[in-house]
Amino acid sequence: MQGTSPDYVFPPAPVPVLPVKGTDRFFAVHRVYCVGRNYAAHAVEMGGDPDKEPPFFFQKNPDNLVTIGEFPYPPASSDVHHEIEMAVALKGGGRDIPVERALECVFGYGVALDMTRRDLQASAKEMRRPWEVGKAFEASAPCSALVAASEIGHPSQGAIWLDVNGERRQTGDLNQMIWKVSEMISYLSGLFTLQPGDVILSGTPAGVGAVKRGDLLCGSIDGVGDLEVRVI
Fold first, then answer.
1. pLDDT tens readout for residues 105-142
2. What pTM was computed for the model?
3. Domains of the chain with bracketed CATH
4. Quick one: which H or E segment has residue 167?
5. Which of 28, 80, 145, 211 has the most CB atoms in a 10 Å sphere around its CB?
């Protein structure tokens, strides 16, 4: 009833949030969209053809985003891979957003990992089934604090890389993205009504590979930030 508090069957879960660097503010997460094969070299290493494929997206759960600096190795898999990505956090949304206005929706950016149970994803692909078991598991999206676009602008170039135990595994440049941030936002808005709080993981460069318990993952994106995660 209007004016009364809802009588929940059990207390609702906390709203997933990401910290905003240099402030006491938090960014409340609504949805998490991930673009697949958005760097040409990674598309090739995963068996795709970047010259022929339109963009495609899958989702992670909002509470898959974590900032605890640890990645608990998940159950039911023996082949978990790292994928370093730039996170794009939206402050606005809508439907059918024009490319030339898409960046107006962006609040800021972060450094994230799209951790993947590759063996379960491969099995799902073979059976033509959805990817959630491979992608949307607990703590599968470690993320840095967000940095506001008002502070750094909208990065369109700059190194993106990941080291595992001090060894370089992934390296690329934001200018190698097949679909740019504005194009991803515009395309997605033709499929979904985008909302403030949505986060887009914008794809990974080549060099994805397996992790094991005890590994230290250190990633960075020029002008955006750094991320350090221990596999436990």
1. 999 999 999 999 999 999 999 999 999 999 999 999 99
2. 0.94
3. 17-231 (3.90.850.10)
4. strand 167-173
5. 80
